[in-house]
Specification:
There is one protein chain. By secondary structure, the protein is an alpha/beta fold. It has three domains: 230 residues, Phosphoenolpyruvate-binding domains (TIM Barrel, Alpha-Beta Barrel), CATH 3.20.20.60; 77 residues, M1 Pyruvate Kinase, Domain 3; 117 residues, Pyruvate kinase, C-terminal domain (Pyruvate Kinase, Chain: A, domain 1, 3-Layer(aba) Sandwich), CATH 3.40.1380.20. The protein is 36% helix and 23% strand. The strands form four sheets. The protein has an eight-stranded parallel β-barrel, surrounded by seven helices. A six-stranded mixed β-sheet has the order 6-5-9-8-7-11, covered by helices on one side. A five-stranded mixed β-sheet has the order 19-18-17-20-21, sandwiched between helices. Strand 20 and strand 21 form a beta hairpin. The two termini are 23 Å apart.
Length: 467
């Protein structure tokens, strides 16, 4: 089940892919990591899907990562008497704290913190930007707004405030309960939605306490202003182009995507590009050419992983969506113009070893880099330099092996702990051969930290011949 590409695929599970056969089909088509979206579905179904993934992991003999995506403080309006209203440009509507069903002149907005942040002139977007309004007057418990662009508006539609930093935490009580549920199950990654500031990530890290890797979803423009600090407190990032694209002009999103990917590349942190990658495949068996180009661009930019959302959660062609994404990725990576761009080495011995490994591979024509790591840190450093050959990430910890499934170029393998240095070299040769990356007579480059079990202590490079 080795992949013939370096970038990874994160597939969302949903009503259309909640059976054993459907999840197996997604994995066989190319999914490397699965997403459990806590904004939808019941916990019982998420647990059932999680158990299925772990069972399939044993069947295929390969680590499979699971990401728990927390809902975050999603802002929504209340309801209408007739479930929906049609509002037009020039209409005025009042938002207030009264959750009594509204009409085209008023509607409840059960978020007091929103009114604290509003001021005259603030732009309010509803239903992913399909309806836009401008605040005319506001107070502690109301806001009067004029419709700039109208449409039909129905119950519980989402609300966005472009450029406004809200006085709310990224973790709601629901998120805390969902996080405890996920950690109890044994999830590998947790994604924190609507991160606005570094303190959001610090709070999440404290709650997780090392039991999973923590990913920041960048959906708020305010987070971009503190990007480096957020990256420093994260194990990975997601460019969540859905809400980000609503709160920013669409022409700004592609440049921000590139900026975020490059910043993560420089920091050696896995980065996921998400939202509407192959959106037309929710209903169609093939993507548009523009969507294929969008997927290709993210791979050319050096993203570690691309995410499918509705395409695999509720779409009519889930495994086909994964398969075509797999083919696009592989085609890009075989293009002579493809250059994943190695990050500049930091002034540390660990980075020096990883950069040297990349150069040695090129000089001697080695077939693979084998990164031996208990925590996964050595393997992440090997991926950071973007070598021209696959990275076989060997670890005795299944938790590390599963987390590495999100990382560019890494074929993750769990094996028994090495008894000594010679045993480690022998394992590196046998595992890379069994996985199909090398054959007898090939050379591999091994990186490791000695003494074993010291996180981040990459200090050894070894060239080995495969028998």
């Amino acid at each position: 089940m080795r992949r013939n590409r370096q970038a990874k695929i994160l597939a969302t599970l949903g009503p259309g892919t909640s059976s054993r056969d459907a999840i197996a089909a997604l994995f066989e088509a190319g999914a490397d990591v699965f997403r459990l979206n806590m904004s939808h579905g019941k916990r019982e179904k998420h647990r059932e899907n999680f158990d299925t993934i772990r069972e399939l992991e044993g069947v295929y003999g390969r680590p499979i990562g699971v990401l728990l995506d927390l809902q975050g403080p999603k802002l929504r309006i209340a309801t209408f008497v007739d479930d929906a209203v049609a509002i037009e440009k020039g209409d005025r509507i009042r938002f207030d704290l009264d959750e009594t069903p509204g009409d085209k002149t008023r509607v409840g907005l059960p978020h007091p913190e929103v009114f604290q942040a509003l001021k005259p002139g603030t732009v309010v977007l509803l239903d992913d930007g399909r309806v836009s309004l401008k605040v005319i007057d506001c107070g502690d418990d109301f806001a009067d707004a004029e419709v700039i662009a109208g449409d039909e508006l129905s119950n519980h539609k989402g609300l966005n405030l472009p450029g406004v930093q809200l006085p709310i935490a990224a973790l709601t009580e629901k998120d805390r309960d969902d996080l405890a549920f996920g950690l109890e199950m044994g999830i590998d990654w947790v994604a924190l939605s609507f991160v606005q500031r570094p303190e959001d990530m610090a709070e999440a890290r404290e709650l997780v306490d090392g039991r999973a890797a923590v990913m920041a979803k960048l959906e708020k423009p305010s987070a971009i202003d503190m990007l480096d600090d957020i990256i420093a407190l994260s194990d990975g990032l997601m460019v969540a182009r859905g809400d980000l694209g609503v709160e920013l002009p669409p022409e700004e999103v592609p440049g921000l995507q590139k900026r975020i990917v490059r910043a993560c590349r420089a920091a050696g942190k896995p980065v996921v590009v998400a939202t509407q990658m192959l959106d037309s495949m929710v209903d169609a068996p093939t993507p548009t050419r523009a969507e294929a180009s969008d997927v290709a661009t993210a791979v050319y930019d050096g993203a570690d992983c691309l995410m499918l959302s509705a395409e695999t959660a509720v779409g009519d062609y889930p495994s086909e969506a994964v398969a075509i994404m797999d083919r696009i990725m592989s085609t890009v990576e075989n293009d002579p113009l493809y250059d994943p761009m190695a990050a500049d080495a930091e002034a540390t011995s660990a980075d020096a070893i990883s950069a040297a490994a990349r150069q040695v591979v090129h000089t001697i024509g080695a077939s693979a880099i084998v990164a031996y790591s208990v925590s996964g840190a050595t393997t992440l450093r090997a991926a950071r330099v973007r070598p021209e050959v696959p990275i076989v990430g060997i670890t005795p910890k299944i938790t590390s092996a599963r987390r590495l499934t999100m990382t560019w170029g890494v074929h993750s393998v769990r094996t028994e702990d090495a008894r000594d240095f010679v045993d480690m070299v022998n394992r590196a040769c046998s595992v890379s051969k069994e996985a199909g990356f090398v054959q007898a007579g090939d050379r591999i480059v091994i990186t490791a930290g000695v003494p074993f079990g010291t996180p981040g202590a990459t200090n050894t490079l070894r060239i080995a011949w495969v028998d």
